[in-house]
Structure formats: C-alpha cells, structure tokens
Design brief:
The protein is of the alpha+beta class. It has helices at about 5, 10-25, 30-35, 40-50, 60-70, 130-140, 180-185, 190-195, 200-220, 220-230, 240-250, 260-295, 365-370, 380-390, 390-400; strands at about 85-95, 100-110, 115-120, 150-155, 175-180, 315-320, 320-330, 340-345, 350-355. The chain contains 15 helices and 9 strands.
Length: about 400
Amino acid sequence: MKYEDLVKTKEFENLKNIIIDKKKKENFNIFKVLKLENQEIRHSAFLAYLLDPNQNHYLGVKFLQAIMNKVGADIEIKDGDKKDIKVKTEHYIKECNEKKAIGKRIDILITAPKFVCVIENKYGTGEHDKQCQMYKKYIQEKYQDKKIKKVFIYLDIVKHDIENFKKGNPLEGYISLSYQDILDIFKQKNIINQINKDDKSIQNNIINQYIEILNEKYNFSQEIKDACNKVININNGKNIDDILKLLTTNSPNNNCSIDDCNVIYMLQDYVWIEVGKKANDITNKLATQISERFLLNRKWKYQDKQYSVFRYQKEITGNNDKYLAVRNALNIKGEGNSIGTCIVEKSSNGWKEISRTRCNLINRNDFFRKLIDNKLEEDKLIESFLTEYRENIENDICRFLS
C-alpha cells in the first residue's frame, strides 16, 4: 500500500471532507492558514521563541523553567538569569569520521552559564543516523566543565518507553518529552494566567492559537475517530498491517496534495496517539502478567526500574551476568506479533540474546482490527495466551536456571 493508493479510497475521501467541513466552521488560526501545524521545523521555531526569556511573549523564564521541571532537570532559573540565556534553532555542527565530514543541525540549543540543553524535535519522524548521540558527544566535548549541567530532550508526538533511553540504545542519555507534555505545561496556572494577562495582545492570540492546534492533536472528536478507523479498516481490515506500517514509517511524498498531506498527518497522529497507546497498554499488561505469574512467585529478586535489554523488554531477574527478560515484540510500528521470554547476557556491545521463546499473541491484522473495532476482549486474550504458552515459558525458566 502506498499513499497514492490510500488517498484514492472512498474512506480517505470521506475523512478529508469531514476535515474540510470542520475547518469552514473554525475560528481564524495563523498556523492553519499558513499550513504550519504539521511542520516540525515550524514547531521548533515557535517553541524556541517561547523558551527564550528575552523574547516579547511576557512569559519570562516561566516556560523554560516549566520544561526543565517536566523532564526532571534539577535546574532553577531566575528572572535575573535571562540576559545570559541564549536560544538557537538549527544549530549547525560537523563531525568528521574516517570517510567524510557529516553536518547535522541541533533543532533547539539552549545555553546558559549553569546549563546547556539540547532539544531534538522529531514530531513523529523518528531518530536516524545516530544523530542524537552525535549531538550529545558534541555538547559533552564543548562544555567539559562538570558544573555545567547537560540536559538532552527527545521531543515527539508521543512519549517513548523508558527502555529506549537506557544504556546501549540510540537515545541513551536523553529524556522523553511529548507534545502532550507541552500542552499540559500551557495549562499550568502560572503559565495560562500570564498568557491571558493581556487578552488583546497579539502574542496572547498567537500563543492561544498554538495551544488550539495541540488540543486538536490530542483530542479527536468521535466523528474523526470513526472516519480514521474506516480508513485503517479498508477492505474489511485485510490491509491493516500494511496501512499501519505506512503511517508509522513513511511521510507523504510530493505526489500528494497539501490537503491530502494534512489528512495523512492527522491519520498518523491518530495511529500513534490512539491506536498505538491502546496496543502498548495491552501488551505491557500482558508482560506484567507473565512477570507476576511465572517469575515473581519464585521469590526471585525483581529488579524494578531496570530497563532496556532490548527495545521492548524489561529485565526481570538476574543470575550473574545473565538475565531472564520478558520480550514484547508486538507494537504499532514493528513487524512482530509475539510476546514471550528470552535469556540474555551482558556483552561489550550491550546485550546479547542467548535464546528466545516466541509466543504469538494473535495475528497482527486480527489484533489491530479488533482493537480498532473495540472488539478485543483483553482479559480473555491475556488469559488464553498465558494458558497456551505456560509450558514454553516454564521451559525458558528451566533453561535459565540450568
């Protein structure tokens, strides 16, 4: 399935008409008029404006301090500090390797005498070319004074699993932040009161228009939800897996009109925010059930808050350098449909898988079709899975103990 095929379907056309009719009834919004609401670089520019306490938004250091608080950075910013704070977008860096010089740009770079902050804004596009580690290396080498705190933030539409940010992963050392978190910050009393202090100012109107587009991103009407589900479910759900892969791994190309692109962006938001979250909730619940039923009752020490054996794994118990892990390979973006246990060990390159039990939860198409149609009986699915694969999981445990 390609976007050129998807936009030709009657389901897609129906969703587009609903969105067009909705826009006719909307109030003026500069971000929508200029079609900027889905452009990563424009979000970066506006957020950088709000993060810069020296700009004329009347927020002072409040927004920047709220971001630091949200990611748990132990940094206090006072009004008197603002003159020394610099905020840049698209900050160019160059790294030389054995083959060639590689140029990259940090989306938002904040520098101050007491701290440095990198914000990598992905807006659904995903990390690539180890760029985040390149930025981290650049900052650590340039700001070697240990008194200067370094904060690395990975901003995306959804909040990512903590596993992705632990040692050995491409996002190691970064902190996950979502646009939902940004929206929550705008709702904080000290922020919203300052924004609305002068309700006739241009700044006030523009910031509220930005809040409006974030609100729409995370609050879909039932009509929009139903129309999105029909697009994903075309051909009676036979192509769900292909459509989900298309929406989570590819951006629309030049063959799509601007209106079609905006509909595709909404579909992508819906898949990540609504469908992906539901899928993760169910599979994480199952991973917890496996832990509780097969591992914790053996009185093994549960290593809470230790994550990231693999991208979707959680460490359960350790035996010297070997670990028994619950592996969740069913997610909105991947190709797997299994959840099971595996034995891994520490190696010089991170983690090495020794053996794995593949326990197929359900056919991917069936899983997401029932999930979208609200026909997935979670408790029954989990119970049948645990019953069917009890022996497989027990065998993994025996191998681990031997």
